[in-house]
Amino acid sequence: MDKSTINIGLIGFGTIGSGVVEIFNQNSDLIEKKTGKKVNLKKVVDLDITTDRGVKIDPSQLSTDVNDILEDPSIDIVIELIGGYEPALGFILKAIENRKHVVTANKALLAKHWNEIMSAAEKKNVRISFEASVGGGIPLLQPLNESLAANKIEAIYGIINGTANYILTKMSNEGLNFEEVLKEAQIKGYAEQDPTFDIEGHDTAQKLIILTILGFGAYVKQEKFHVEGITHITSEDIKFAKDNHYVIKLLGISQIIDGELEVRVHPTLIPKTHLLASVNDVYNGVYLVGDFLGPAMMYGQGAGMEATASAVLGDCIDIINNPLKRVPYGPQKSLVKSIKNIEDVTSKYYIRLTALDQAGVLQAVSGILNDFNISIESVLQKKTSNGDKVPIYMVTHEASEKNIRQALTIINQLEVVQSPSLFIRIL
Ligand code: HSE
Q1: Angle at Cα 137 formed by Cα 135 and Cα 139, nearest 5°?
Q2: 35 Cα–ligand 1 center, Å
Q3: Domain housing 401
Q4: Which of 14, 51, 95, 409 is most deeply packed, by most CB within 10 A?
Q5: Which residues are catalytic?
Q6: What is the dihedral of CA 28, 34, 35, 36, to 10 degrees?
Q7: How many domains does the chain have?
Q8: Whose alpha carbon is nearest atom 8 of ligand 1?
Q9: Which CATH number characterizes residue 316's domain?
Q10: What tens digit of pLDDT does each residue of 362-401 get?
């Protein structure tokens, strides 16, 4: 940018927005040094400009009118931090229309309206940056785009939802049930009052869509891939995992297997020796494999005011220094036809079922698995105080998901099976 002063407009004075203001308050000298320009937070727009956010801001910087940013020709970069679809989409498109660069943390919007936003930006020759949309403050998207650009990405495995990771970690550390931990997490403010989005895997799915575009150049809409949350995971499953040197994590997986792209979100048993197994509490970790790089893992705070604001301001500095940077993503063709159907995915599986403690039960269950070409690696049947019902845990060798589903449907119909079986994929 050839101006000596760069003006920034911030839409959304919430948690992350307050973090952005605080970075300006504390690090504006640093930002000036890194850009060689005066960088001015000219306007902050929000519907509520009276509540104290605990950060210093001059009242003249505040407005409730978004046009004070979108229609101000002196504003060069618009930061959108209101989240959601509308009015965020309208604001971003207007900013682009008025030739402003955009920085956003809005993964939901990008995951749904990628092509519309990228086409508009391409047409107007402005940049859209969104490092904060996946993994909060972790440098992830820019390294994927730039430092790793010479690699064919082979796999991306992400623990990219802090809420779900906190719940699973706590269940594991304290032997508690899902519901108990969720309640406590809500009281402590780690989980939303309506936590559906986080615990049902939708937030992970949206972030995975963005990672898949950057990693594989494929835009796969959420309805095209398998998304499964963690609400059915019990303390029994966690204990089995622990006793057998695994941890259970909600994983977003995008990988090329035999030339085909697999995209899926589900709880996964991960061997304790895997780097991802040490990503605990609200932390996020993304493990990826490049054909020349080999494996690497990025780890850090995937949410939160300060960490996420640091990614937002990092994007602004990059745009100021490189306003014409050509980024290797743009409107993407949907590669839906070549996405592997979840039924064709192969994996090892953990299976849990409850059956009557009678002769021949294991034989019946293993016979059905055998009919579907599923080989058993180990079986554990536990005594409980629950009358003559016993939980049975199994680990299979590699099998196709179609076969597992069909076999379990038949197993569930056995008279001796007392509650529907559950399976969890193993990494
Ligand atoms: N709700 C998300 C999480 C943070 O729990 O990780 C925002 O992406």
Answers
A1: 80
A2: 30
A3: 343-426
A4: 95
A5: 207
A6: 90
A7: 3
A8: 303
A9: 3.40.50.720
A10: 999 999 999 999 999 999 988 776 668 899 999 999 999 9
